[in-house]
Amino acid sequence: MAVSGFEGFEKRLELNFSGDDPAIGIGFRQLDFQSLEKVLHAVQCTVVSALGNQHFDSYVLSESSLFVYPTKIIIKTCGMTQLLKSVPPLLHHAATMDLQICACRYTRGNFIFPEEQPYPHTSFEEEIVYLEENLPENLCCRKASVMPSKLSSHSWHVFSACDQSQMVMQKSPYDDQLYTAEVCMTGLDRVLAQKFFRHPNDGQTADSAGKEMTESTGICDINPNALICDFAFDPCGYSMNGIDGDHYSTIHVTPENGFSYASFECVASMYGDIVEMLNKAVQIFRPATMTVATKCTSHEVWMQVAKAIKPLGMKFRSCTVDDFPGTGSVVFQVFTSRRK
Ligand SMILES: C[S@+](CC[C@H](N)C(=O)[O-])C[C@H]1O[C@@H](n2cnc3c(N)ncnc32)[C@H](O)[C@@H]1O
């Protein structure tokens, strides 16, 4: 842990590949567990729990989560991990499986303890230089941007790179209906945060204590259809991955007062129940400040997000929109609690 406290804000990397027919091949899922562990070793984290279905594999990590699809990898790590160090070994493994990288997206919020971050995460500039140096030239359409908000403490860092095929590719109507929502919450309600502390000598395993937290906090009700893989850290802290068909969701909690943080991320459908899921997730933490970044093209989605959050006593503070190659529009919204 950093000297000052645990850094909850995650770094998130998504890599997309071509060269494998997802309908017949298993692509990246053929990578053996030992090789995956070596990649994670470079990042400075380990697998603590795993769950998969016919669509993808999900791993709860000592610092957040990893999702492996046939042609997509999503890896999210917090603390003092060196997430971007996973890029060279992942690209090496992709080449051995005849997969070609066609898009890369890196996102994060503002670190609570930026001065504690190790190379290559000491600044956004350094992260970009590292990515530029380690991504192949075919990802020629690139953009990096820091999306601001009304709060100087909260901004959204985005780097996106893709090849020409992603720029011209016509997305299927199904793709347009799906989007990812990344929610970051700080200043968690102190009473609610207590539920993510273990009881001393509770005689439970990390898995059974995690299950109890999933149930007692209402996390299990966010998407009742999801299969959940959960883990309770000692003496406190919680992580879960939910899998529902080809959709994932994930929650991570740092409950310590002074630097409390929780994140919620899910894939949602434009016509699905994002309002209800977001509403339930926010009520579990009642944060002082929350940010929601959505990757979508529809104005309707931003409205849905605000509709889910405003009734919970959160005040809308700002909304920023920017466009990225291969990603489309990213919308970054900030809300603060009305409570004193
Ligand atoms: C890994 S979890 C959740 C991470 C997530 N990004 C977040 O902050 O919400 C972090 C929480 O678990 C606690 N924790 C306890 N043991 C840990 C360990 N061995 N590795 C990582 N975190 C641990 C931390 O103090 C923190 O409260």
From TrEMBL:
Binds 1 pyruvoyl group covalently per subunit. Substrate binds at residues 6, 63, 233, 256. Its EC number is 4.1.1.50. Pfam families: SAM_decarbox. PROSITE patterns: ADOMETDC. GO terms for molecular function: adenosylmethionine decarboxylase activity. Its cofactor is pyruvate. The record marks 63-64 as: Cleavage (non-hydrolytic). Pathway: Amine and polyamine biosynthesis; S-adenosylmethioninamine biosynthesis; S-adenosylmethioninamine from S-adenosyl-L-methionine: step 1/1. The modification Pyruvic acid (Ser) is found at residue 64. One of its GO terms (biological process) is spermine biosynthetic process. Keywords: Autocatalytic cleavage, Decarboxylase, Lyase, Polyamine biosynthesis, Pyruvate, S-adenosyl-L-methionine, Schiff base, Spermidine biosynthesis, Zymogen. NCBIfam families: SAM_DCase (TIGR00535). Belongs to the eukaryotic AdoMetDC family. This is S-adenosylmethionine decarboxylase proenzyme. It comes from Olea europaea subsp. europaea.
